[in-house]
Amino acid sequence: MPVIEVDQDVYVHLLRNTVTIGESASDILRRLLDVPRPHNDGSTARTSQAHSARTTDAPGTPNEFSECLSDPLFHAEHDVVGKFLFALSYIHRRDPKGFEKVLNLSGRRRKYFGRSSDELKKSGRSVFPKQIPGSPYYVVTNNDTTKKRQVLRDVMRLLRYSDEAINAASSAINHSRTRGIPDKVWNILLEDAHDG
Q1: What are phi and psi of 138, to 5 degrees?
Q2: Which residue of 91, 110, 141, 185 pairs with 124 in a disulfide if CB–CB is 3.0 to 4.6 A?
Q3: How many Cα atoms are found within 13 Å in the side-chain-facing hemisphere of 61?
């Protein structure tokens, strides 16, 4: 197999477009460039489907959310709250105007989202509001992991993401920092991504 050198920004782009753990650079490039495999091993159809889903402008295509989930910075988050905030920040960046709809999401006794920390503090005790990075919105963070997953699912459903994207995002909000990838591997990837 030939070896090619790529610029740092190209490497980072490939890293950010990884959809599954262990996906090779060739597989990523085939998907992004819509290059079929030389032998029909059944993966050509998957590659074409992934490419067509990625190039759709709809905000909810699974591969568009996969960009968030494959981002090394998402995996660098050490806890559930960090991953939860990262995912919400990504969703906000994709649709800042539509994101305002989340202000209507609430539990039986308290609000989940607000425009200020004080607004959320008034809706319940020990809510630990945090600002969603890059947005003017705050979210309650003292819910357990299951509730955080449900809130994320509700946000994505409200903004019309596909069930596949919602399930992928929800399952990524977990206690495992790296979804089974050793910290040493992610640290190397992060160093490589930020060097240059």
Answers
A1: -120, 155
A2: 110
A3: 14
